[in-house]
């Protein structure tokens, strides 16, 4: 119906004095027709007269009166009213208003899907935690957000690929390897363990698993820990150098085993969290600067040829002026080693070469300062920096028994994602991660998430779904030969279910808005409001005590409510409950 109204609005605009092709297109791009906030303002509302008046320098109220007359003359609607500063409120005929129920019954789980993405190819890279330890609850928020975003974009007509970037090269992996080896040989080195090594039970377990697989020992370790630098960073670097020098083959064996162990645990945890990736991209696949044909070498050479990279003080720098970055960035250090940034430049060039229309990076909020330099690198390799969209995710603070849970991978103090899933389940965890805008701080209270109260919004929404499912089952038991229908709902005198019908009609627009703004939490807010309406309706009406005709129609409506709640949960990767 909205598309039909918009066609009539376009026809009306063509007759407005002073309009031309340019101003007409400007109005069409800016105005909206949407479902009204409440039934007091009719079923639909449009701001087209205010937009047109602003563009054409006309009186919006006079323009609204003209459009009101035009729409009333069509006799397609029950009522049309010009209101306020220039709004047009439209009340649909009863049959058109309730038609959404028939639509939901027909298309079921596809209700809410659309084609507004126009088959645009979108890549979402998210989580991408260093494979140096288990995923903790801080990673969970980015995982829930990125996965939900992928589902929403796919449901709205985009071709989506979800990717995890594995940082399997560089210093942090060397620190991980050294940490595992030191745990294996700790008795031979008097339990020496550097301050900046990775700690935690998982390091010991990896070492034990490796020893179960093959023998491991070094000779002459008496002086290994002597004369170490006092600076923690220099100390761990010296440890790495010493261990690599003792036996490179053993070093590489532990490194490979440790990486495989942690990557497997990450994949297992994400699978349990209902997060699946289409691609796992290894940083090591970009090659090294030693290889002239590697992707990282090709990227640096392209920047040099384009005049965007230059040599200074023995290092290679990227000119980032075009993006407004506060300083130029080092790609290759004076000693010839590539920086993390150089790998990121090569990785983003690889993404662009794969032909994606948009790249969405989901980063922790602490990476805010990294955005401009990546944008600069994308421009420097000859692409449009607007193709990159960075969504920042604030850290989630976890509270248990009224106390904030500490988290640090390096120290080994953290509440893992696996622990969280065991504590409250994957669905509840995903829900609460998505319950606020991603760039806002989130306090995650486990006690609330496990409660059966109204304060637990997840429970409140799931209870609405389960309540309706139970009603449907009771109805089928009582009236096995009958099917629900719309006889009473289509009656102009019947209004008991109207608020529910009006609310579920909003769902497709909510999904579209969530996709366009990249904000999954809008669906959570909507489900909360719809569930609240249902619970109020259910508490005020004795559904199973109604007349047969009324009950048939009410169940028809409530089934549509349940389907809408189900669709909203499913699009977020959450399983709807049939019983609590």
Descriptive overview:
This protein has 21 helices and 15 strands. 49% of the residues lie in helices and 12% in strands. The mean pLDDT is 93. Helix 3 (48-56) crosses helix 4 (60-73), helix 7 packs across helix 9 (232-246) and helix 11 crosses helix 12 (340-353). The chain starts with a helix and ends in a 10-residue tail after the last helix. The strands form 4 sheets. Strands 7-6-5-11-12 form a 5-stranded parallel beta sheet, with helices on both faces. Strands 1-2-4-3 form a 4-stranded antiparallel beta sheet, with helices on one face. A 3-stranded antiparallel beta sheet has the order 8-9-10. It has 580 residues and is an alpha/beta fold. 38% of the residues are buried. A hairpin with an 8-residue loop joins strand 1 (33-35) and strand 2 (44-46). The longest helix has 25 residues, at 248-272. Among the domains are: 2-92, Gyrase A, domain 2 (2-Layer Sandwich), CATH 3.30.1360.70; 171-267, no CATH class; 454-570, Orthogonal Bundle (Isoleucyl-tRNA Synthetase, Domain 1), CATH 1.10.730.
